[in-house]
Specification:
Blueprint: E1 4-5, H1 20-43, H2 48-74, E2 80-81, H3 85-105
Antiparallel strand pairs: 1-2
Helix pairs in contact: 1-2
């Protein structure tokens, strides 16, 4: 399996119509888009009452997204790649450099 990190994949029948994996991927993508759009709505809410209502909906959406992700992960339908240590180290150095640059601008 190389550097892939995942659970054992539950096989689904390939067909023209959606199977369980297709439905779950569609749900995940929809919830990710909803989350992004809800963030925008939260930052642009015109009053506290509206903000609170949107925030309540937002927390429900991210909870549902997490449940869908866990289901996809447990079925082996969502895979991650293990990052190489050199790539992690390189990214840490890049972030530290940017942080240092920003810190120096504020001095």
């Amino acid at each position: 399996m190389g550097n892939k990190v995942c659970c054992e994949e539950v096989k689904v029948q390939a067909a023209i119509t959606f199977n369980d994996r297709d439905y779950l991927n569609d749900i995940l993508n929809t919830e990710k888009e909803l989350t992004k759009n809800m963030c925008t709505a939260l930052t642009e809410a015109s009053n506290k009452e509206l903000h609170n209502e949107l925030y309540s909906i937002f927390t429900n959406v991210i909870d549902l997204q997490q449940e869908a992700y866990e289901l996809a992960w447990n079925n082996g339908w969502y895979k991650l790649e293990e990052a190489e240590k050199t790539k992690i180290s390189q990214k840490q150095k890049e972030i530290q450099k940017k942080y240092d640059e920003l810190s120096n601008k504020n001095d």
